Structure formats: C-alpha cells, structure tokens
Amino acid sequence: MTVRVAAIDPSMGGTALAVLEAVAVGPPKLLLLQRIASKPAPTLRGRIERFAGIANRAWELLAEHQPELVFIEGYSFASQHGGEKLGELGGILRLRLLVEAPMFEVPPAMLKKWATGKGNANKATVVSAVSQRHGMLLSNDDEADALALAHLAMMVREPTAAHPYPKDQRLVADKLRPEVEASIRDWWQTGIPEVGLAPKRRRGRG
C-alpha cells in the first residue's frame, strides 16, 4: 500500500499543510502544500469561529488526501506574542483532526534540527534550507515548516524512500520512530475516548 503522510504548521499568520506520497523511484511526491489564511477577529466568538474555520479547512484537505499519519509542530513555550491564541488554535486543530488520522507532535527545536541541522536555527534559515533542499522558492516559514515536517513524517514511516536529507539529520527520524509507531498503534486500538469518537479505519499500516 502506498504510504501517504501529512504535516501541519499551526500559525496565526497562516496555518500550512503539506501532504507527501511515497513513490517507487525517487523522492516522495508532493501532493499538497497550502497555506490557510484567515482574518483576525476582535471578539471571542469571532476568534473561535476563525480557528474553527481553519481546522475545518484542514480537515477537508486531510479527508481528501487520506494520509495514514499526520505530524504537527508542537507548541513553542518561548513565544512571547499571541501564545495564548496560538494555543487555542492548536487545541481546536488537534481536536478536529485527531479523528481523521494518527497525529504526532514534533517539538520546534527537533523540527529545526531536522530541517537545518541546528536546533536553534531562526525562521529565515529554515526557509532557506528547506527551499534549497527541495528546489522550491518558499516565501514563508509556515510552508517551509510544513514541508520539512512532512518529509520527517515520511522518513519515520518509510525510511527506505529516497529522501534528500543527510545521514546526521536522519538520526532525528530514527529517534522518533519507536514513539511514533507506538502512537499509531494506540490510535488504532483505543480510538479517542476523550471526545467520544473512534478512528475511521480506512488506509494505513497501523
């Protein structure tokens, strides 16, 4: 069965989503790289409706592409601006999308280490590194993070694929693999009792 994975970079500026599919020869195929833009809202109701709209659009894209695994960038506890609102968006996204496929959080420092080789790289360095590695002109860090995160998910799930990442950075995937595989098994076996929903048994190797 063809391996297909997705990745999400939650962002107040524009949540980005990437989907990759393994192919017989060559690097994984990019099926989707999209930034979900939305306008800020001044009220509590408007803010939650905005976040719900982002989550619903992300859910539609995942339902269309049916990945077997979703990586999402974890929270940055060092954020000094809009951290509470980003936490609200992140919670709504996780609640909405966890019923679609197994989800795994990747800490920001680990994502930077994977993308650039340095866990403390700044946003511009990540954009430059990911753009050069994949031969794309990426204009924002949201898409760069999502694309790099999707390749990390694919490396974890399908390590034999032809990935354009050096050996030292592949160690990041090796470190994550046991925990990710355990998370996938748990998702298929236990469902999601916290929200009263069971996983949809469609595709995947869980």
Protein model, in words:
- This protein is an alpha/beta fold and 206 residues long.
- It has a single domain (4-191), classed as Nucleotidyltransferase, domain 5 (2-Layer Sandwich), CATH 3.30.420.10.
- It has helices at 44-65, 83-97, 108-116, 123-134, 141-157, 167-190, and strands at 4-9, 15-21, 29-36, 69-73, 103-106.
- A 5-stranded mixed sheet has the order 3-2-1-4-5, sandwiched between helices.
- A hairpin with a 5-residue loop joins strand 1 and strand 2 (15-21).
- The termini are close together.
What's the SSE pattern? EEEHEHEHHHH
What is the makeup of the main sheet? Answer: 5 strands, mixed
Structural class, from secondary structure content? alpha/beta
Number of discrete helical segments: 6
Domain unit count: 1
Strand residue percentage? 5-15%
Radius of gyration: 16 Å
Helix-residue proportion: 40-55%
Whole-number average pLDDT? 87
Q: What is the CATH topology descriptor?
A: Nucleotidyltransferase, domain 5
- List the uncertain runs: 201-206
N- to C-terminal distance: 12 Å
Task: Sum up the overall morphology in one term.
Answer: globular
Strand order of the largest sheet: 3-2-1-4-5
At the first level of CATH, what is the class? Alpha Beta
So, the CATH homologous superfamily? Answer: Ribonuclease H-like superfamily/Ribonuclease H
Quaternary organization:
single chain
Number of β-strand runs? 5
Any idea what the CATH architecture is? 2-Layer Sandwich
